[in-house]
Amino acid sequence: MITKLRLAIRNDLEAAAEARVFGSGWLSGVLALVLGGSALLLLLAHQYPAWFSVEDLEAVHASPYYMLGVQALALAAFALACVNLVLRRNKILGFSAVAFVLMTTTLGAIGAQTIPGEGINFGVDWFILNLLLKGLLFVPLEKLFSGDKPQPLFRYEWREDLLYFLISSLLIQIMAFISLAPTMAILKHAALWQSLRDAVAAQPYIVQFVELMLIADFMQYGFHRLFHQVPFLWRFHAVHHSAQAMDWMAGSRMHLFEILLLRGVTIIPLYALGFDQSALYGYIFFVYLVSAYVHANLRFKDEGISLFFVTPRFHHWHHGIEKEAIDVNFAVHFPWIDRLFGTYYLPKGQWPSGYGIGGHPVPKGWWAQFIYPLQREKKPVPEPAE
Ligand SMILES: [Zn+2]
Ligand SMILES: [Zn+2]
Question: How far is the CA of 237 from the centre of ligand 2 (A)?
Protein backbone atom coordinates (compact mmCIF):
# COMPACT_ATOMS: atom_id res chain seq x y z
CA MET A 1 0.00 0.00 0.00
CA ILE A 2 2.72 2.46 1.09
CA THR A 3 4.95 1.27 -1.75
CA LYS A 4 2.14 1.75 -4.28
CA LEU A 5 1.47 5.24 -2.93
CA ARG A 6 5.15 6.16 -3.08
CA LEU A 7 5.41 4.90 -6.63
CA ALA A 8 2.30 6.84 -7.66
CA ILE A 9 3.74 10.05 -6.14
CA ARG A 10 7.10 9.47 -7.77
CA ASN A 11 5.52 8.84 -11.17
CA ASP A 12 3.64 12.12 -11.05
CA LEU A 13 6.70 14.03 -9.81
CA GLU A 14 8.72 12.66 -12.73
CA ALA A 15 5.92 13.25 -15.27
CA ALA A 16 6.88 14.08 -18.86
CA ALA A 17 7.63 17.71 -19.68
CA GLU A 18 4.30 18.31 -21.45
CA ALA A 19 2.42 17.07 -18.36
CA ARG A 20 4.35 19.54 -16.18
CA VAL A 21 3.53 22.77 -18.03
CA PHE A 22 2.12 25.75 -16.16
CA GLY A 23 -1.61 25.26 -15.68
CA SER A 24 -1.41 21.47 -15.55
CA GLY A 25 -1.60 21.49 -11.75
CA TRP A 26 1.84 19.90 -11.46
CA LEU A 27 3.62 22.88 -9.93
CA SER A 28 0.84 23.48 -7.37
CA GLY A 29 0.89 19.77 -6.51
CA VAL A 30 4.66 19.71 -5.96
CA LEU A 31 4.58 22.89 -3.89
CA ALA A 32 1.61 21.62 -1.85
CA LEU A 33 3.45 18.37 -1.14
CA VAL A 34 6.70 20.11 -0.12
CA LEU A 35 4.96 22.73 2.05
CA GLY A 36 2.54 20.20 3.62
CA GLY A 37 5.34 17.77 4.41
CA SER A 38 7.43 20.64 5.79
CA ALA A 39 4.60 21.83 8.05
CA LEU A 40 4.15 18.32 9.45
CA LEU A 41 7.85 17.74 10.12
CA LEU A 42 8.37 21.21 11.60
CA LEU A 43 5.42 20.60 13.93
CA LEU A 44 6.88 17.24 14.96
CA ALA A 45 10.23 18.88 15.66
CA HIS A 46 8.45 21.50 17.78
CA GLN A 47 6.31 19.08 19.77
CA TYR A 48 8.92 16.41 20.27
CA PRO A 49 12.13 18.44 20.52
CA ALA A 50 13.84 15.73 22.55
CA TRP A 51 13.87 13.58 19.43
CA PHE A 52 13.68 15.73 16.35
CA SER A 53 15.15 19.12 17.10
CA VAL A 54 18.67 20.47 16.96
CA GLU A 55 19.63 22.38 20.09
CA ASP A 56 21.11 25.26 18.07
CA LEU A 57 17.61 25.95 16.75
CA GLU A 58 16.17 26.33 20.26
CA ALA A 59 15.81 30.09 19.81
CA VAL A 60 13.88 29.51 16.57
CA HIS A 61 11.45 27.23 18.40
CA ALA A 62 11.03 29.69 21.26
CA SER A 63 9.89 32.42 18.87
CA PRO A 64 6.12 32.96 18.75
CA TYR A 65 6.44 33.12 14.96
CA TYR A 66 7.47 29.46 14.72
CA MET A 67 3.95 28.04 15.09
CA LEU A 68 2.56 30.89 13.02
CA GLY A 69 5.01 29.85 10.29
CA VAL A 70 3.93 26.20 10.55
CA GLN A 71 0.27 27.21 10.27
CA ALA A 72 1.03 29.47 7.30
CA LEU A 73 2.84 26.58 5.58
CA ALA A 74 -0.09 24.22 6.22
CA LEU A 75 -2.57 26.79 4.96
CA ALA A 76 -0.54 27.49 1.81
CA ALA A 77 -0.18 23.73 1.25
CA PHE A 78 -3.95 23.31 1.54
CA ALA A 79 -4.68 26.15 -0.91
CA LEU A 80 -2.15 24.79 -3.43
CA ALA A 81 -3.53 21.26 -3.02
CA CYS A 82 -6.97 22.62 -3.95
CA VAL A 83 -5.50 24.15 -7.10
CA ASN A 84 -3.90 20.79 -7.95
CA LEU A 85 -7.15 18.89 -7.32
CA VAL A 86 -9.07 21.24 -9.61
CA LEU A 87 -6.54 21.38 -12.44
CA ARG A 88 -4.98 17.93 -12.58
CA ARG A 89 -6.50 14.60 -13.56
CA ASN A 90 -3.95 12.68 -11.53
CA LYS A 91 -4.68 14.00 -8.04
CA ILE A 92 -2.13 12.00 -6.07
CA LEU A 93 0.06 15.01 -5.17
CA GLY A 94 -2.90 17.09 -4.02
CA PHE A 95 -4.43 14.30 -1.95
CA SER A 96 -1.08 13.46 -0.32
CA ALA A 97 -0.59 17.13 0.55
CA VAL A 98 -4.10 17.29 2.08
CA ALA A 99 -3.24 14.21 4.14
CA PHE A 100 -0.11 15.99 5.44
CA VAL A 101 -2.14 19.09 6.32
CA LEU A 102 -4.75 16.98 8.16
CA MET A 103 -2.04 15.19 10.13
CA THR A 104 -0.46 18.54 11.00
CA THR A 105 -3.69 20.07 12.26
CA THR A 106 -4.67 16.92 14.19
CA LEU A 107 -1.26 16.61 15.83
CA GLY A 108 -1.24 20.34 16.52
CA ALA A 109 -4.63 20.07 18.23
CA ILE A 110 -3.45 17.20 20.42
CA GLY A 111 -0.82 19.59 21.67
CA ALA A 112 2.68 19.29 22.93
CA GLN A 113 3.70 16.16 24.75
CA THR A 114 7.08 16.04 26.27
CA ILE A 115 9.06 12.93 25.74
CA PRO A 116 11.90 12.50 28.15
CA GLY A 117 15.15 12.21 26.33
CA GLU A 118 18.55 13.68 26.33
CA GLY A 119 21.73 13.70 24.31
CA ILE A 120 21.77 13.47 20.55
CA ASN A 121 18.63 14.40 18.64
CA PHE A 122 17.74 14.10 14.98
CA GLY A 123 17.71 17.39 13.12
CA VAL A 124 14.32 17.09 11.44
CA ASP A 125 13.81 20.84 11.76
CA TRP A 126 17.27 21.45 10.32
CA PHE A 127 16.51 19.21 7.33
CA ILE A 128 13.33 21.13 6.51
CA LEU A 129 14.85 24.58 6.99
CA ASN A 130 17.87 23.47 4.99
CA LEU A 131 15.73 22.15 2.15
CA LEU A 132 13.41 25.17 2.07
CA LEU A 133 16.30 27.66 2.20
CA LYS A 134 18.44 26.03 -0.49
CA GLY A 135 15.44 25.04 -2.60
CA LEU A 136 13.96 28.54 -2.56
CA LEU A 137 17.29 29.97 -3.61
CA PHE A 138 18.56 27.48 -6.18
CA VAL A 139 15.45 26.04 -7.86
CA PRO A 140 14.46 29.40 -9.41
CA LEU A 141 18.12 30.22 -10.22
CA GLU A 142 18.51 26.90 -12.04
CA LYS A 143 15.28 27.58 -13.96
CA LEU A 144 16.66 30.96 -15.05
CA PHE A 145 20.29 30.02 -15.78
CA SER A 146 20.22 26.44 -17.06
CA GLY A 147 21.06 27.74 -20.55
CA ASP A 148 20.78 25.09 -23.26
CA LYS A 149 20.72 22.24 -20.72
CA PRO A 150 17.48 22.63 -18.75
CA GLN A 151 16.95 19.77 -16.31
CA PRO A 152 13.77 18.70 -14.50
CA LEU A 153 13.79 19.18 -10.72
CA PHE A 154 13.12 15.46 -10.32
CA ARG A 155 16.02 14.41 -12.52
CA TYR A 156 18.01 11.16 -12.64
CA GLU A 157 18.59 9.79 -9.10
CA TRP A 158 16.98 12.77 -7.34
CA ARG A 159 15.67 10.44 -4.62
CA GLU A 160 19.18 9.19 -3.83
CA ASP A 161 20.53 12.72 -3.42
CA LEU A 162 17.51 13.80 -1.37
CA LEU A 163 18.20 10.85 0.94
CA TYR A 164 21.81 12.02 1.33
CA PHE A 165 20.48 15.51 2.06
CA LEU A 166 18.07 14.06 4.66
CA ILE A 167 20.55 11.77 6.41
CA SER A 168 23.32 14.34 6.76
CA SER A 169 20.77 16.91 8.02
CA LEU A 170 19.33 14.46 10.55
CA LEU A 171 22.78 13.55 11.80
CA ILE A 172 24.03 17.15 11.92
CA GLN A 173 24.44 17.15 15.69
CA ILE A 174 26.43 13.98 16.02
CA MET A 175 28.50 14.83 12.94
CA ALA A 176 29.34 18.28 14.35
CA PHE A 177 30.21 16.71 17.67
CA ILE A 178 32.62 14.18 16.19
CA SER A 179 34.21 16.52 13.67
CA LEU A 180 34.81 19.18 16.34
CA ALA A 181 36.50 16.73 18.71
CA PRO A 182 40.08 17.10 17.35
CA THR A 183 39.68 20.90 17.31
CA MET A 184 38.52 20.95 20.92
CA ALA A 185 41.50 18.84 21.96
CA ILE A 186 43.85 21.35 20.33
CA LEU A 187 42.03 24.39 21.72
CA LYS A 188 42.85 23.20 25.25
CA HIS A 189 46.38 24.42 24.58
CA ALA A 190 45.31 27.67 22.86
CA ALA A 191 46.79 29.77 25.66
CA LEU A 192 50.23 29.01 24.19
CA TRP A 193 49.55 31.17 21.13
CA GLN A 194 46.97 33.50 22.64
CA SER A 195 48.73 36.66 21.41
CA LEU A 196 48.44 35.41 17.80
CA ARG A 197 44.77 34.59 18.37
CA ASP A 198 44.14 38.09 19.71
CA ALA A 199 45.87 39.67 16.73
CA VAL A 200 43.83 37.56 14.30
CA ALA A 201 40.55 38.44 15.99
CA ALA A 202 41.42 42.14 16.04
CA GLN A 203 41.58 42.41 12.22
CA PRO A 204 38.65 43.90 10.28
CA TYR A 205 35.84 41.44 9.58
CA ILE A 206 36.37 41.40 5.82
CA VAL A 207 40.11 40.65 6.17
CA GLN A 208 39.33 37.76 8.50
CA PHE A 209 36.74 36.47 6.05
CA VAL A 210 39.21 36.45 3.15
CA GLU A 211 41.84 34.76 5.33
CA LEU A 212 39.30 32.11 6.31
CA MET A 213 38.57 31.47 2.63
CA LEU A 214 42.27 31.19 1.80
CA ILE A 215 43.24 28.92 4.67
CA ALA A 216 40.22 26.68 4.24
CA ASP A 217 40.70 26.37 0.49
CA PHE A 218 44.41 25.49 0.71
CA MET A 219 43.61 22.88 3.38
CA GLN A 220 40.65 21.61 1.41
CA TYR A 221 42.73 21.45 -1.79
CA GLY A 222 45.34 19.25 -0.13
CA PHE A 223 42.89 16.87 1.46
CA HIS A 224 40.63 16.72 -1.56
CA ARG A 225 43.63 15.77 -3.69
CA LEU A 226 44.64 13.16 -1.15
CA PHE A 227 41.15 11.68 -1.39
CA HIS A 228 41.71 11.34 -5.13
CA GLN A 229 45.19 9.88 -4.96
CA VAL A 230 45.16 7.43 -2.03
CA PRO A 231 43.19 4.39 -3.26
CA PHE A 232 41.68 3.66 0.17
CA LEU A 233 40.41 7.24 0.48
CA TRP A 234 39.29 7.40 -3.14
CA ARG A 235 36.77 4.62 -2.53
CA PHE A 236 34.99 6.93 -0.05
CA HIS A 237 35.24 9.98 -2.29
CA ALA A 238 34.11 7.95 -5.32
CA VAL A 239 30.61 8.06 -3.82
CA HIS A 240 30.57 11.86 -4.30
CA HIS A 241 31.80 11.40 -7.88
CA SER A 242 29.18 8.76 -8.69
CA ALA A 243 26.57 11.47 -9.36
CA GLN A 244 25.53 11.38 -12.99
CA ALA A 245 23.29 14.44 -12.81
CA MET A 246 24.47 17.74 -11.37
CA ASP A 247 22.36 20.29 -9.55
CA TRP A 248 22.20 22.09 -6.18
CA MET A 249 21.36 18.82 -4.44
CA ALA A 250 24.06 16.62 -6.04
CA GLY A 251 26.74 17.94 -3.69
CA SER A 252 25.00 16.31 -0.71
CA ARG A 253 25.98 12.91 -2.05
CA MET A 254 28.96 12.32 0.20
CA HIS A 255 30.05 9.42 2.35
CA LEU A 256 29.63 10.18 6.08
CA PHE A 257 33.22 9.19 6.74
CA GLU A 258 34.46 11.70 4.19
CA ILE A 259 32.36 14.48 5.72
CA LEU A 260 33.79 13.73 9.16
CA LEU A 261 37.39 13.46 8.05
CA LEU A 262 37.41 16.45 5.70
CA ARG A 263 35.54 18.68 8.12
CA GLY A 264 37.40 17.46 11.20
CA VAL A 265 40.70 18.46 9.63
CA THR A 266 39.87 21.66 7.73
CA ILE A 267 38.23 23.39 10.69
CA ILE A 268 41.19 22.89 13.04
CA PRO A 269 43.15 25.98 11.87
CA LEU A 270 39.96 28.04 11.52
CA TYR A 271 39.18 27.56 15.22
CA ALA A 272 42.76 27.36 16.45
CA LEU A 273 43.80 30.70 14.95
CA GLY A 274 41.15 32.43 16.99
CA PHE A 275 39.09 34.12 14.28
CA ASP A 276 36.26 36.25 15.57
CA GLN A 277 33.16 34.14 16.04
CA SER A 278 30.96 36.24 13.77
CA ALA A 279 33.52 36.00 10.94
CA LEU A 280 33.88 32.25 11.47
CA TYR A 281 30.14 31.59 11.53
CA GLY A 282 29.66 33.92 8.59
CA TYR A 283 32.22 31.88 6.67
CA ILE A 284 30.60 28.56 7.66
CA PHE A 285 27.26 29.83 6.34
CA PHE A 286 28.98 31.00 3.15
CA VAL A 287 30.52 27.54 2.60
CA TYR A 288 27.13 25.97 3.18
CA LEU A 289 25.79 28.00 0.23
CA VAL A 290 28.93 27.52 -1.89
CA SER A 291 28.62 23.73 -1.72
CA ALA A 292 25.19 23.95 -3.35
CA TYR A 293 26.28 26.69 -5.76
CA VAL A 294 29.30 24.88 -7.28
CA HIS A 295 27.21 21.78 -8.05
CA ALA A 296 24.20 23.74 -9.32
CA ASN A 297 23.19 23.62 -12.97
CA LEU A 298 23.91 27.33 -13.44
CA ARG A 299 25.22 27.93 -16.96
CA PHE A 300 25.90 31.66 -16.97
CA LYS A 301 28.84 33.19 -18.85
CA ASP A 302 31.77 32.95 -16.43
CA GLU A 303 34.78 33.89 -18.61
CA GLY A 304 36.09 36.73 -16.45
CA ILE A 305 35.01 35.69 -13.00
CA SER A 306 36.22 32.09 -13.34
CA LEU A 307 39.81 33.38 -13.32
CA PHE A 308 39.44 34.47 -9.70
CA PHE A 309 36.54 32.55 -8.17
CA VAL A 310 35.23 29.03 -8.54
CA THR A 311 32.09 28.90 -10.69
CA PRO A 312 29.70 25.97 -11.23
CA ARG A 313 31.39 25.24 -14.60
CA PHE A 314 34.77 24.91 -12.86
CA HIS A 315 33.49 22.35 -10.36
CA HIS A 316 31.38 20.59 -13.00
CA TRP A 317 34.65 19.84 -14.80
CA HIS A 318 35.85 18.25 -11.58
CA HIS A 319 32.92 15.84 -11.96
CA GLY A 320 33.18 15.48 -15.76
CA ILE A 321 33.17 12.02 -17.36
CA GLU A 322 35.86 13.10 -19.87
CA LYS A 323 39.44 11.83 -19.61
CA GLU A 324 40.71 15.42 -19.26
CA ALA A 325 38.47 15.90 -16.21
CA ILE A 326 40.22 13.27 -14.09
CA ASP A 327 42.02 14.75 -11.05
CA VAL A 328 41.57 18.43 -11.93
CA ASN A 329 39.94 21.48 -10.30
CA PHE A 330 40.15 20.60 -6.61
CA ALA A 331 39.65 24.11 -5.21
CA VAL A 332 36.26 25.31 -3.95
CA HIS A 333 36.91 29.06 -3.73
CA PHE A 334 39.96 30.05 -5.77
CA PRO A 335 40.69 28.34 -9.12
CA TRP A 336 44.19 29.86 -9.18
CA ILE A 337 45.18 27.37 -6.45
CA ASP A 338 44.75 24.68 -9.10
CA ARG A 339 46.81 26.76 -11.56
CA LEU A 340 49.51 27.01 -8.90
CA PHE A 341 49.71 23.25 -8.52
CA GLY A 342 49.11 22.33 -12.16
CA THR A 343 45.70 20.74 -11.80
CA TYR A 344 43.64 23.42 -13.57
CA TYR A 345 41.35 22.48 -16.46
CA LEU A 346 38.70 24.80 -17.87
CA PRO A 347 38.23 24.73 -21.66
CA LYS A 348 36.77 28.04 -22.79
CA GLY A 349 32.98 28.15 -22.65
CA GLN A 350 32.64 24.36 -22.62
CA TRP A 351 30.81 22.05 -20.23
CA PRO A 352 31.49 18.35 -19.67
CA SER A 353 29.40 16.01 -21.83
CA GLY A 354 28.40 13.96 -18.79
CA TYR A 355 29.21 13.28 -15.16
CA GLY A 356 30.41 10.38 -13.06
CA ILE A 357 33.27 7.90 -13.07
CA GLY A 358 34.16 5.94 -16.22
CA GLY A 359 32.53 2.50 -16.02
CA HIS A 360 30.37 3.67 -13.09
CA PRO A 361 31.92 1.33 -10.48
CA VAL A 362 29.96 2.67 -7.48
CA PRO A 363 26.76 0.69 -6.73
CA LYS A 364 23.38 2.42 -6.49
CA GLY A 365 21.54 3.15 -3.24
CA TRP A 366 22.58 4.82 0.02
CA TRP A 367 23.39 1.67 1.98
CA ALA A 368 25.28 -0.04 -0.85
CA GLN A 369 27.33 3.15 -1.21
CA PHE A 370 27.90 3.32 2.53
CA ILE A 371 29.54 -0.12 2.65
CA TYR A 372 31.14 0.13 -0.80
CA PRO A 373 34.49 1.59 0.44
CA LEU A 374 34.67 -0.98 3.22
CA GLN A 375 34.37 -3.96 0.93
CA ARG A 376 37.42 -5.57 -0.49
CA GLU A 377 38.12 -4.57 -4.05
CA LYS A 378 37.29 -7.28 -6.55
CA LYS A 379 40.56 -8.51 -8.01
CA PRO A 380 40.53 -8.89 -11.77
CA VAL A 381 40.43 -12.55 -12.72
CA PRO A 382 43.91 -13.55 -13.93
CA GLU A 383 44.22 -14.77 -17.49
CA PRO A 384 44.64 -18.52 -17.61
CA ALA A 385 48.19 -19.51 -18.59
CA GLU A 386 48.61 -20.93 -22.04
ZN1 LIG B 1 36.72 15.13 -5.98
ZN1 LIG C 1 31.55 17.97 -6.04
Answer: 10
